[in-house]
Amino acid sequence: MWVLDVQRESWPIAGSFTISRGSRTVAEVVVVSLTDARSGKRGRGECVPYARYGESVEGVVAEIEALAPRLASGRLDRLALQDALHPGAARNALDCAFWDLEAKERGRAVWEIAGLDRPGPLTTAETLSLDLPEKMAAQAVAKAGCPLLKIKLGSEGALARVEAIRKARPDATLIVDANEALPPDDLLPTLGALADLGVAMVEQPLPAGEDDALEGIDSPIPLCADESSHTVKDIPRLARLYDMVNVKLDKTGGLTEAMAMVKAAEDADLKVMVGCMVGTSLSMAPAFLLGSRATYCDIDGPVILAKDREFGLSYARGRVQPPLPDLWG
User: Are 12 and 26 in contact (CB under 8 A)?
Assistant: First the structure.
């Protein structure tokens, strides 16, 4: 019933993109197309395999291609997919392709089918790659007019970097992504100093396996789980440690689980951030639909690329417009 096509694509990054775990100059993505053999309609989804979670492009492609016989026979639909694959990049690409295909076949937008709010323009964080303080300040100046900046930090020199950025952009809301790298022994003093610099939120200050230490601490800044945040099952634990959870479709395994996770977070009095890996607008479009439920959106992946795909999202000064049906949904 459904004809599967899986393609590996490489998208150059504008310069390089650096976080505490290293630097990259290219984004490697996997694109899935599902074509209905009867109607000829096609749906697409994109995922970004991530080594931090034990994924590789080759492994993700193999996971998806292994389901080709079940897809061809019509024995695998979007709901069955949730049990057929574990949460992660492979399921994300297929899940989003199913949503897109259903939208194309029914002539209705995904947000309508899923019972989500009609999408409107969103403010997205724009990311400052980890670098020397003066270079990060220059990045911030280059993003003049962007109201929300996300600062990548490492284990050393955090305060010097934020001080330089704050001086360069006193008008911006600053959020910090530590990628598990803040020194545990100095965590509270560091958070206090970041609060004094007007930082609005800190993402994943400690390693995912060590963040139980956050329980009961009196943080002066809201803390957001990222590397610790994957699916609905994580919410009860995260609610004891964090104020917010970052929902990324490449970790939830698609829009289906991401919607459930947003609801579970809200029910647990956790605020939501909608995030992304570095990918094209085809990765961002499904996440965009959750933006109205989020305190912060961080879907600037295409801004980091040297070039986006055709019919990509429209970005200008930290604002992004809803996806076109020609792209997805």
Answer: yes
Give the list of residues 6+ apart from residue 186 with CB closer than 8 angstroms, or none.
Answer: none
Helices (H) and strands (E) in the chain, counts: 13, 14
Dist CA 178 CA 44 (whole Å): 32
pTM across the whole model: 0.96
User: In the chain, what are the helix, strand and coil shares in percent, each to the nearest 5?
Assistant: 40, 25, 35
The verdict on whether 307 is a catalytic residue reads no
- Residues 237-250: pLDDT tens digits? 999 999 999 999 99
54 Rama sector, left if φ>0, alpha if ψ -120 to 50, beta otherwise: left
Q: What is the mean pLDDT of residues 172-188?
A: 93
Which two three-digit tokens encode residue 292?
């109205």
Active-site annotation holder among 233, 248, 271, 307: 248
Confidence class of residue 21 from pLDDT cuts 50, 70 and 90? confident
Active-site choice (104, 143, 150, 152): 152
Report the DSSP pairing between strands 271-274 and 296-297.
Answer: parallel
Q: Is 152 a catalytic residue?
A: yes
DSSP 138-186: HHHHHTTT-SEEEEE--SS-HHHHHHHHHHH-TTSEEEEE-TT-S-GGG
Is the CATH code 3.20.20.120 the one for domain 122-320?
Answer: yes
Q: Indicate the pairing of strand 122-123 with strand 319-320.
A: antiparallel
CATH number of 2-110: 3.30.390.10
Residue 27 structure tokens: 């984004």
pLDDT digits (tens, 9 = 90+) for 272-302: 999 999 999 999 999 999 999 999 999 999 9
All structural domains of the chain with their residue ranges: 2-110, 122-320
Handedness of CA 212, 17, 123, 279 (dihedral sign): negative
